[in-house]
Design brief:
- By secondary structure, the chain is an alpha/beta fold.
- It has six helices and six strands.
- The protein has a single domain, classed as CBS-domain (Roll).
- A three-stranded mixed beta sheet has the order 1-2-3. A three-stranded mixed beta sheet has the order 4-5-6.
- β2 and β3 form a beta hairpin.
- The longest helix has 24 residues.
Length: 150
Protein backbone atom coordinates (compact mmCIF):
# COMPACT_ATOMS: atom_id res chain seq x y z
CA UNK A 1 0.00 0.00 0.00
CA UNK A 2 1.27 3.47 -0.85
CA UNK A 3 0.20 7.11 -0.45
CA UNK A 4 -1.84 6.98 -3.65
CA UNK A 5 -3.82 4.01 -2.31
CA UNK A 6 -4.60 5.95 0.88
CA UNK A 7 -5.80 8.91 -1.19
CA UNK A 8 -8.05 6.66 -3.29
CA UNK A 9 -9.59 5.13 -0.15
CA UNK A 10 -10.20 8.51 1.48
CA UNK A 11 -11.71 10.28 -1.51
CA UNK A 12 -10.58 13.32 -3.42
CA UNK A 13 -11.90 16.24 -1.37
CA UNK A 14 -9.22 18.92 -1.21
CA UNK A 15 -9.65 22.28 0.49
CA UNK A 16 -7.43 25.14 -0.60
CA UNK A 17 -6.93 28.80 0.20
CA UNK A 18 -4.73 31.50 -1.28
CA UNK A 19 -1.84 33.03 0.66
CA UNK A 20 -3.51 36.45 0.70
CA UNK A 21 -6.79 35.10 2.10
CA UNK A 22 -7.64 36.23 5.59
CA UNK A 23 -6.74 33.85 8.36
CA UNK A 24 -10.34 34.22 9.55
CA UNK A 25 -11.70 32.89 6.23
CA UNK A 26 -9.34 29.90 6.46
CA UNK A 27 -10.56 29.22 10.01
CA UNK A 28 -14.15 29.39 8.77
CA UNK A 29 -13.38 26.86 6.00
CA UNK A 30 -11.64 24.53 8.43
CA UNK A 31 -14.51 24.62 10.92
CA UNK A 32 -17.28 24.44 8.32
CA UNK A 33 -15.83 21.28 6.78
CA UNK A 34 -14.40 19.87 10.04
CA UNK A 35 -10.86 19.63 8.68
CA UNK A 36 -7.55 20.21 10.40
CA UNK A 37 -5.67 21.75 7.50
CA UNK A 38 -5.98 23.58 4.22
CA UNK A 39 -3.56 23.61 1.32
CA UNK A 40 -2.28 27.03 0.36
CA UNK A 41 -2.14 27.37 -3.43
CA UNK A 42 -0.67 30.29 -5.35
CA UNK A 43 -1.13 30.40 -9.14
CA UNK A 44 -1.73 26.65 -9.33
CA UNK A 45 1.25 25.60 -7.25
CA UNK A 46 1.64 24.46 -3.66
CA UNK A 47 2.64 27.50 -1.61
CA UNK A 48 2.23 26.03 1.86
CA UNK A 49 0.00 24.38 4.44
CA UNK A 50 -2.08 25.89 7.18
CA UNK A 51 -3.01 23.60 10.05
CA UNK A 52 -4.98 24.10 13.22
CA UNK A 53 -1.62 24.22 15.06
CA UNK A 54 -0.63 27.22 12.95
CA UNK A 55 -3.94 28.90 13.77
CA UNK A 56 -3.43 28.27 17.50
CA UNK A 57 0.05 29.78 17.26
CA UNK A 58 -1.40 32.89 15.58
CA UNK A 59 -4.01 33.15 18.31
CA UNK A 60 -1.33 32.88 21.00
CA UNK A 61 0.74 35.61 19.36
CA UNK A 62 -2.28 37.93 18.96
CA UNK A 63 -3.84 37.67 22.41
CA UNK A 64 -6.49 35.21 21.25
CA UNK A 65 -7.56 37.16 18.15
CA UNK A 66 -7.19 36.34 14.49
CA UNK A 67 -7.49 40.01 13.61
CA UNK A 68 -6.54 41.05 10.10
CA UNK A 69 -3.90 38.33 9.74
CA UNK A 70 -3.35 36.68 6.39
CA UNK A 71 -2.85 32.99 5.70
CA UNK A 72 0.70 33.71 4.45
CA UNK A 73 1.59 35.11 7.89
CA UNK A 74 0.74 31.83 9.66
CA UNK A 75 1.19 29.04 7.11
CA UNK A 76 4.14 26.68 6.77
CA UNK A 77 5.68 27.85 3.48
CA UNK A 78 7.79 24.70 3.13
CA UNK A 79 5.67 21.71 4.13
CA UNK A 80 7.15 18.25 3.90
CA UNK A 81 5.58 16.46 0.95
CA UNK A 82 5.60 12.85 -0.18
CA UNK A 83 5.42 11.21 -3.57
CA UNK A 84 2.29 9.26 -4.48
CA UNK A 85 4.36 6.06 -4.57
CA UNK A 86 5.65 6.48 -0.99
CA UNK A 87 5.08 3.26 0.92
CA UNK A 88 2.55 3.59 3.74
CA UNK A 89 5.06 2.30 6.32
CA UNK A 90 7.55 5.01 5.29
CA UNK A 91 4.72 7.55 5.37
CA UNK A 92 3.69 6.48 8.85
CA UNK A 93 7.28 6.65 10.08
CA UNK A 94 7.75 10.14 8.58
CA UNK A 95 4.55 11.40 10.17
CA UNK A 96 5.52 9.99 13.57
CA UNK A 97 9.12 11.19 13.45
CA UNK A 98 8.20 14.72 12.36
CA UNK A 99 4.99 14.86 14.45
CA UNK A 100 2.99 15.68 11.32
CA UNK A 101 -0.74 15.22 11.13
CA UNK A 102 -1.12 16.27 7.48
CA UNK A 103 1.08 15.57 4.46
CA UNK A 104 0.58 16.82 0.91
CA UNK A 105 0.99 14.14 -1.74
CA UNK A 106 2.62 15.00 -5.06
CA UNK A 107 1.95 12.86 -8.13
CA UNK A 108 3.96 13.61 -11.25
CA UNK A 109 4.68 17.16 -10.09
CA UNK A 110 1.08 18.04 -9.19
CA UNK A 111 -0.72 18.10 -5.87
CA UNK A 112 -2.78 14.90 -5.65
CA UNK A 113 -4.22 15.48 -2.18
CA UNK A 114 -3.47 15.62 1.50
CA UNK A 115 -3.23 12.61 3.78
CA UNK A 116 -3.94 12.91 7.47
CA UNK A 117 -2.61 10.61 10.14
CA UNK A 118 -6.23 9.48 10.58
CA UNK A 119 -6.42 8.55 6.88
CA UNK A 120 -3.28 6.42 7.23
CA UNK A 121 -4.58 4.70 10.36
CA UNK A 122 -7.92 3.92 8.68
CA UNK A 123 -6.27 2.56 5.52
CA UNK A 124 -3.90 0.32 7.51
CA UNK A 125 -6.74 -0.93 9.71
CA UNK A 126 -8.87 -1.76 6.66
CA UNK A 127 -5.96 -3.53 4.97
CA UNK A 128 -5.23 -5.56 8.10
CA UNK A 129 -8.92 -6.43 8.43
CA UNK A 130 -8.97 -7.66 4.84
CA UNK A 131 -5.84 -9.76 5.36
CA UNK A 132 -7.30 -11.15 8.59
CA UNK A 133 -10.51 -12.20 6.80
CA UNK A 134 -8.51 -13.82 4.00
CA UNK A 135 -6.41 -15.80 6.48
CA UNK A 136 -9.51 -16.94 8.39
CA UNK A 137 -11.17 -18.03 5.14
CA UNK A 138 -8.01 -19.90 4.17
CA UNK A 139 -7.83 -21.66 7.54
CA UNK A 140 -11.54 -22.50 7.46
CA UNK A 141 -11.09 -24.17 4.04
CA UNK A 142 -8.00 -26.11 5.10
CA UNK A 143 -8.19 -29.61 3.62
CA UNK A 144 -8.64 -32.55 5.98
CA UNK A 145 -5.52 -34.74 6.18
CA UNK A 146 -5.78 -38.08 4.43
CA UNK A 147 -5.78 -41.04 6.76
CA UNK A 148 -2.65 -43.16 6.88
CA UNK A 149 -4.74 -46.31 6.42
CA UNK A 150 -5.84 -45.06 3.04
Amino acid sequence: MNANDVLRAKGNALFTVQPDASLWSAVQTMTEFDIGSVVVMDHGRLAGMLTFRDVFQALRLNDGRVGKGLVRDSMDPHPTVVDAETDVDALRRLMLDKRMRYVPVIDQGSLAGVISFHDVARAVLEEQGYENRMLKDYIRDWPEPESANG
